Amino acid sequence: MANDAPTIVLASNDQVIVTASLPAANQSILIHNLLLNFGDMGFEAAIPIPNVKGDVLAKVMQWCEHFRNEAQPDQDDFKQKVKTPEEIPEWVQDYFKVESDILFAVITAANYLDIPLLLAYGCRIVANMIKSKSTQEIRNQFGIVNDFIPEGEEKLRTENAWAQDPK
């Protein structure tokens, strides 16, 4: 965190306190708008972030600190720049090398906090992880239990045959 930048304090839903520089916190459009609308009142206490757990909030603020001086990209611009896994910067790839439950919690937090770049990269990472994999391989990778009865699963496969790879 930059020592010369003002800081704000955030409180997760499990009461974990996370400190972030103001430029980093402004990577979140939600927090930015809160500060714009209520900044005149000052924030004597921590800003509550009710839908995000402490470990995830800390991970998200790590992202925001890294990109604190970056402007929010246009979605179309992002789609043009990042089409393949090779186009994802190394720091971003390393950031997302986490357990799948943390990965999905970070993506959910990015959506809630409205951090477009984090959300876009997170979704791209997951898309790359499941690309060209079978349903069973995806279930195995993410620990998803198959709760379909065989007849129901077969019906879905038949109805969505267009989405299956020919064998």
What does this molecule look like?
This protein is mostly helical and 167 residues long. It has one domain: Potassium Channel Kv1.1, Chain A. It contains 9 helices and 3 strands. The chain has a 3-stranded mixed sheet with strand order 2-1-3. The longest helix is centred in the C-terminal third of the chain and has 15 residues. The mean pLDDT is 88.
Oligomer: single chain
The number of strands is: 3
Strand percentage: 5-15%
CATH superfamily: Potassium Channel Kv1.1, Chain A
Features:
single chain, SKP1/BTB/POZ_sf, ubl conjugation pathway, mainly alpha, SKP1-like, Potassium Channel Kv1.1, Chain A, 3-stranded mixed sheet, about 170 residues
SSE arrangement:
Elements: E1 7-11, E2 17-21, H1 22-25, H2 29-38, E3 47-48, H3 54-66, H4 75-81, H5 90-95, H6 100-113, H7 116-130, H8 135-142, H9 150-159
Parallel strand pairs: 1-3
Antiparallel strand pairs: 1-2
Protein name: E3 ubiquitin ligase complex SCF subunit
Subunit structure: Component of the SCF (SKP1-CUL1-F-box protein) E3 ubiquitin ligase complexes.
Pathway: Protein modification; protein ubiquitination
